[in-house]
Amino acid sequence: MKKTFAALLMAAGVALTGLPASAQTTLRVANWLPPQHPLFAEIIVPWTKQVEEATQGRVVMQILDAPLGPPPAHFDFAVNGVADVTFGVHNYTPGRFEVTELAEMSFLCEKSAYLSPAWWRIHSQYLEKLDEHRGAKLLGVWTHGPGQLWTRGRDVTSLDKIKGAKIRIGGGFAQSVANALELVPIQAPVTKAYEILSGGVADGIQFPPESVTAFKIDEVLDQGLIVPGGLYTASMFLVMNQAKWDALPKEDQDAILSVSGEALAKMAGEVWDRADAAAIALIKQKGRITLHEPTPGELDAIKAAIKPYQEQVLAKITAKGVNGQEVYDALVAEIAKVKAGN
């Protein structure tokens, strides 16, 4: 009798533990970054844990061990179901995401913690309807901190002195900044930054401070132009395969949304700001790089050079059916609200 009762308990235990497992949904999360990079380690990984907690374990996030392909391919990995969840940088796929350049423009904000939540709000209100993320469920947009200009052997104290410098740049509005300042753009993967700078292939690079130390190029640079609000930022996304999203119970969809969107943008902004502050402190401590903040006259010259390119972005947005100037003004106003704690 005792053996029979024990057997029944064991059978019941197996059945009970099997029930939650059968109700679980596993989402495969793609990653293309080194495991220690802040974007992955301090934003994406914590978000996956928040999803599991918010869904009370009904959704399990499985981060894939190896990259599925190059960073620009990751949006399509989500669309095509190669992975269930992916993240990336909008300007890695030129021409696909155009209105996201709004959040990449110069002088917008000194902190990602202000810009990122404001960007999510404005994108949701004005730009999501343009459906540039079609084929996937958009879960978040945010930006890194202010991008600046860093050089090796090139004076950054005037536009004349940096004119013609060979600079490794990213895409998006950073390309427009390079054109405005009459720089010579060098296209190279970010992983090659140290190599092209140390070898003299490039005279400098456009980067937020965090990336300067993260990729150890502070060892081969000697000047940094620190412009209030930044010369540019980069807009980023987090998306899920649409079919996978549609198959989730509404309870789990709501739980995921509760830790995504503005909550995710706020967390991401704070991570970037901490990383940038730590990088600037390290740069100053080492003393190898001279940091130059433009004088009022120099800043006016930089703004005048960049202004036509900003107007082009607003015109491009207007051509898609949303008033570019109106949405830009709304973003600036929203940044001020976030700063004020609203």
UniProtKB/TrEMBL annotation:
Protein's UniProt keywords contain Signal: yes
Matching InterPro entries: DctP_fam, TRAP_DctP_sf
Alphabetical UniProt keywords: Signal
Keyword Signal tagged: yes
Signal sequence coordinates: 1-23
Gene Ontology biological process terms in this record: transmembrane transport
Protein's name in the database: TRAP-type C4-dicarboxylate transport system substrate-binding protein
Taxonomic source organism: Tepidamorphus gemmatus
